[in-house]
């Protein structure tokens, strides 16, 4: 199935934190490879290490051991500034709690990554994306004036704004009701297809996980790709 | 709700953990501390000045009788009963006999108590060191002006005869506290005891005698005594308090005003800080209130809770502020304690804490309360979803209430309508300019689209936070304006003082130069390289009529015009002296013989205008001349100054005149004076060098005090800026964290933030400084009497400094965002 080199590759990743002197291993020996354009879901219980793994893969932090390469570059050995540059140009994020800036309008929120990536016409591009997620009428509204679903749609518009190669989403529907969650995940999948973006997401939502091409499960810091991988082969 | 103090205290402690509360409380503490420090210090300074001024007039009050009748003993008894100390001096001129010669002298006969304030400076022999003593000679002895030794050719220990009485010369009289500036004593002075006066037999009915009475005691007692005394006084009685006298130079009055200004600015600044922080607090409390409402608490109940909380803060703020103010003002008062001959104890003036109390209450209840009061209207629905447009609600009304309150406060504090109006005008101008500029700026910024470039990101940031940016800019500009006002006023005050008493300020006066000696005096001094100032003729006379009416009737009774009670020095001159300036009418034309020029303040008090006719009595002559011009006079210039000036060849010319002049003599050349008095025994030499030194010393001390006040106010300004900056701290940090996850690298983030704040600070600084110039111009014009000019160093320094300080604030704000990995940031944000 591997037609190109994997866009995301994790080798022997182990992550420990030291909260108050005692070392706590959150992730152990993680191995994972995702191809360009694929969609992958990571499921697991609360506290199993999903968010931590996502953050490490996105280059928000560096693992204690092991390597993460993104789009052919080993980000686990880069310094913070290089990783920042990487994030600005190739990575998009969607967070469970939206993370919109409350003092900015919807439009300005979407413009943020465009401005960072020195896009020539951030306002224009942002407006287009907001129209695409169905919020063309709410450009000047601040997050406080938007519902949860609407806020998450703004966040998705923001995530896709800089046309990232890969998008990480941490429980994008976690704070939403079923129907809204459904609409938001539809949007995610659609944009993923339209823009050819690779999608990696953490979710509790079984339905959403099932719509992804690959499913991983994480338990007590160990990652596996059980029955689901088999399912994929059945599909083929 | 518990209302016991312990409960309050616990609550306040819990509140303290909230950042906004900490800022409100800190602002309050700084407000109270600044205002209280300034008020305490001002009261101490006032006390010092009054004491020092009292020392210059030998008592707190003087009562002079010029009718040749002693002041009734009953009046002094009344004063003594009221706990007021009294002293007497009898003044008269007579011939003394000694060493085989006669000489006209001016006699001061003092009671034991004299002087009540200040000290007499004397020497036991011409070679002995100068001594400060607190009483004159005992009965049977006399101290004489050193010139008399030469004039009479006598020695210390010889006797001189005053009328029928022989007195032993036991000392040389160098200076009496109240004789410092007096130029009327032309004959050499001697000081004797007043119990010896009757035995001289000099004082007969009809002889010219002045009875000088001195009073010293508590202000309140003195005022009450004056109330009692007033109806008993006749026109020939002159009551003088320090306030009316020219005893201390105007400089010190300006210093007092500066303190008032500083205090008022501190009030304004602190109120702004409290307002900003409490508004922020109210905004943050909305969720809590909504939650309380959901849990079933009623609006009024919630409001009461907040009211109790505010009260607790007020108490804490007051206590904290006052605890801070006491050591501060004590430290400041150490600075000025050197002003006095005898050190003065620190005096805790509890009344001075009034303004601080008022500030705390007004700041909290006019600034902090309105937004907090509106909290009870927060809908419970907010728990689920915030309502749009809540933030701007009622801000205008709050602003208006606050504005009125704070200006009321400043007015109460400074009692200077002009000050309040100047500040108000400056602020209005500032806000107007801000509104226009802000709008233009935002229009311009709108066109900037972002980029990885820090500058553009900074500009985008400014636009993106336009609401907060404009609000912050307004507060910064206001703060900086207030601080700049004080800096500007301070430097012009110091310049003033510096230029007022330059190195070569005349420190000696020559009085009583006979007309035919004028040339000789000039030659004598020029030969010895002493540059002589202008020589003025001087005729002594009284102002007796205005437009044909006796002055007593022409001038309303409640106006007390001291100039009417004594003989004025009249002169004539061709060209206006350079420290005078015409404010109405014209200077005399060449060859003009009629007319008189009058000093502006006197003209105002007399209600005299150009064209009015003034009648004078000079000896047995009377003259009447129309007012040709009104002049301002710089009284503290240490040069001969005159209330009335006539044209040369005018009404005075034929009257007997003596001449007066001043010159600067280096202290090392004092011996010139001895030669001079030997050559011109009838000319009086007035040595003012020690007075000038003293004034310089006082100005130096007061300058230090002013610098300290300035530092305090600048510190208050910094607190305001910190409060304002930290109001958006959380939003900024959140944004910084998010920008980092979105790929902004640290340097970019740091640079753009610093630039954004620098821009904000620079603009605010520029606006503030310009508004300050306007306000200072208004203030200067009315209060400090200086000319307007741009102050380039301040104009440049302020914007630059505020840009630097703010960008550092911005950097400091970002610090927690820069130190940790974006991952941790995200966890914190969740
Ligand atoms: N910096 C840290 N210090 C201490 N403990 C940490 C740190 N980061 C993560 N952990 C711990 O590691 C574990 C995994 O955290 P993580 O947030 O990755 O779980 P999660 O699978 O995303 O859970 P949830 O589904 O609840 O979001 C948790 O027990 C968490 O408390
Ligand atoms: Mg998680």
Description:
By secondary structure, chain A is of the alpha/beta class. Chain A has one domain (6-222): P-loop containing nucleotide triphosphate hydrolases (Rossmann fold), CATH 3.40.50.300. Chain A is 37% helix and 26% strand. Chain A has helices spanning 50-57, 80-90, 106-116, 122-132, 148-161, 178-195, 206-210, 227-235, and strands at residues 6-17, 24-35, 39-44, 65-70, 73-74, 91-94, 166-170, 198-202, 214-219, 222-224. In chain A, strands 6-7-8-3-9-10 form a 6-stranded mixed sheet, sandwiched between helices. A 4-stranded antiparallel sheet of chain A has the order 2-1-4-5, covered by helices on one side. In chain A, strand 1 and strand 2 form a beta hairpin. In chain A, helix 4 (122-132) packs across helix 5. The radius of gyration of chain A is 18 Å and the shape is globular. Chain A starts with 5 loop residues before the first strand and ends with a helix. Residues 228-236 of chain A have low confidence and may be disordered. Chain B has 830 residues and is of the alpha+beta class. Chain B folds into 4 domains: 1-60 and 247-415, no CATH class; 63-72 and 85-215, no CATH class; 430-503 and 688-830, no CATH class; 532-663, no CATH class. A 6-stranded mixed β-barrel of chain B has the order 2-3-9-6-8-7. In chain B, helix 2 (19-56) runs antiparallel to helix 7 (250-294) and helix 7 packs antiparallel against helix 10. Chain B starts with a helix and ends with a helix. The model of chain B is unreliable at 180-185 (pLDDT under 50). The interface between A and B is large, with 44 and 37 residues. The structure holds adenosine-5'-triphosphate and magnesium ion. Magnesium ion binds at residues 50-51, 170 of chain A.
